[in-house]
Write a structure and sequence with these properties.
4 helices, mainly alpha, 83 residues
Length: 83
């Protein structure tokens, strides 16, 4: 009779599961939703930063009526925004 103590232990392969990689992530690797807040805030910031300088023409007529100045004087507002 063969003794079983000399044989190598049989190890079964763990089943491959789709959720196995989630268990290996460190707490720093998981997204807790804060990344979406940063993404939304950055998108809003880019929209305002890049679009407002081009929309000064919409306010040009209003500035001209409110301050009752000539076209040349009122146009300095759009020129000074680029500084």
């Amino acid at each position: 009779m063969k003794s079983e103590s000399n044989s190598a232990p049989v190890t079964e392969k763990p089943e491959k599961s789709k959720d196995n990689w989630i268990q290996r992530l460190s707490p720093l690797d998981t997204d807790k939703g804060y990344a979406w807040i940063i993404c939304a805030a950055t998108s809003i910031n880019n929209f305002l930063t890049l679009s407002l300088p081009f929309s000064i023409g919409i306010y040009y007529v209003t500035f001209k009526e409110i301050y009752q100045q000539s076209s040349g004087t009122t146009s300095w507002l759009s020129s000074l925004k680029n500084l």
